[in-house]
Amino acid sequence: MDATYFPLLGMNYILNDTTQIVDLKMDGVNKVNILLCAQPNSYPHFGTLINFIFGFAYADILRKKYRVEVEVTLDLLEHAKGEKVVHEESVYFKPLNHTYSKDSKLSDYEFYRVFFEELLSELSELSGVDYKIRTFNEFQKERHARRALIDMYNNHDRIAKIITPKENKLRTRLACPQCGLYSTNTKDTKITVYKDKLEFSTECPEHGFCELTFDETNEVEVNPNVPMRNLMKGISIIENDAKNNTLSIVFEGSDWGGVWPLRVYYEGLKEMGYNQIPTLIYTPQILDRSGSKLSKRKYVGGDSAYRGMYDEYIVNISLIKDELGDDAIKKLWNVFSPWASDPKYFFRDYTVNYLLEVMKEEF
Questions:
Q1: What is the tens place of the pLDDT at every residue in 284-299?
Q2: Which residues contact 97 (CB under 8 A, 6 or more apart)?
């Protein structure tokens, strides 16, 4: 393998170890929540694995150093886009929990969730850190998250210019409660804004007109877009951490770093009346040899995008034990979990090719 360099830059310029990010925040904390996130529209891939290893390893480091309870939560987005449906030239989609492309009895969400759960279970055993899976519907039942969505619409014009300047429009869809179908055109979802509630209406081509009221206390489900979900999560974290003396740490890939958190979290939360943001930590982005994010290459190019470049287990972790042995995840944990404490390894991106070279010593 060619010589690898770890120049001092960014966070590794100012840190000796990665726990210094949260050191000042640990006084009086009863529990630490590590928050991961994934869309279960395919099998977990190698980038997912590295992100999860860093999350569990960091949780283990905090648990041992501060002697505090730590739990990992995976937000698994069952609302992610699934089956495409065309009705009279209009385009609709069903979310993953209403799409049955893999199994006639299991939705795509249920089908892929099994593989995420297997990976989480093994990493939990290796790290000694408990975990849970949370759907977006479970999250949006939380009162502060619901209040945040209502408040966004009550300050629509300013919030939209911050988090969706491309359209200057907040985008929330109401899916048919019976079949999950929703229109990609937000004009088909009518929203009436009140101080303490939102009234949504839409029309399903199969089940007709639907009207529902969203407020702080009910459990009506809606589907806001990514920046709105981020703001809802940020506000929920700030409010609940203050109430419960907890520390929640959002772990995401570094492709969500840079200007995104400054714009969506910092400016968005400031406009919503908050003078702080949640604790955000960005894990290494895993790239193919051309410099593209591994998962996005597959998303854009389809199944053929990686063939001839990497073995299939790289984009389908469920195959990794067939390729590398029953103890493959344990060996990968042994290789990569120590990187979670060292800033020079943590705060940079990696190509799959480099990681495969590193793995040769273990395999």
A1: 999 988 788 886 555 5
A2: 78, 79, 82, 107, 108, 109, 110, 135, 180
285's tokens:
């982005």
Q: Is 18 exposed, middle or buried (0-12, 13-18, 19+ CB in 10 A)?
A: buried
Task: Tell me how far apart the alpha carbons of residues 233 and 217 are, in angstroms, rounded to a whole number.
Answer: 17
Give the residue from 60, 76, 57 showing the smallest Cα distance to 68. 60
pTM to 2 decimal places: 0.94
Smallest CA-to-CA distance from 284 within 17, 50, 46, 76 is with 50
Please, which pLDDT band fits residue 103 given cuts at 50, 70 and 90?
confident
Q: Which residues lie below 8 Å from residue 149, measured CB to CB, with a gap of 6+?
A: 140, 172, 198, 214, 222, 224, 228, 232
Task: Confirm if 213 and 197 have CB atoms less than 8 A apart.
Answer: yes
Contacts with 59 (C-beta within 8 Å, 6 or more apart), sequence order: 32, 34, 70, 71, 72, 127, 129
pLDDT value of position 304: 60
Where are the extended beta strands (E) located within the chain?
A: 31-38, 69-76, 81-87, 90-95, 130-135, 172-173, 182-183, 190-193, 197-204, 208-215, 223-224, 246-253, 279-283, 286-287, 350-351
Token digits of residue 325: 């042995």
The pairing of strands 246-253 and 279-283 is: parallel
Strands 182-183 and 90-95: antiparallel
Helices 143-154 and 226-244, interaxial angle, to 10°? 130
As a whole number of Å, the end-to-end CA separation of the chain is 15
45 close to 295: Cβ distance less than 8 angstroms: yes
Residue type, 317: I
3-class secondary-structure state, position 241: helix
E-only strand ranges, 123-224: 130-135, 172-173, 182-183, 190-193, 197-204, 208-215, 223-224
Are the C-beta atoms of residues 192 and 199 closer than 8 Å to each other?
yes
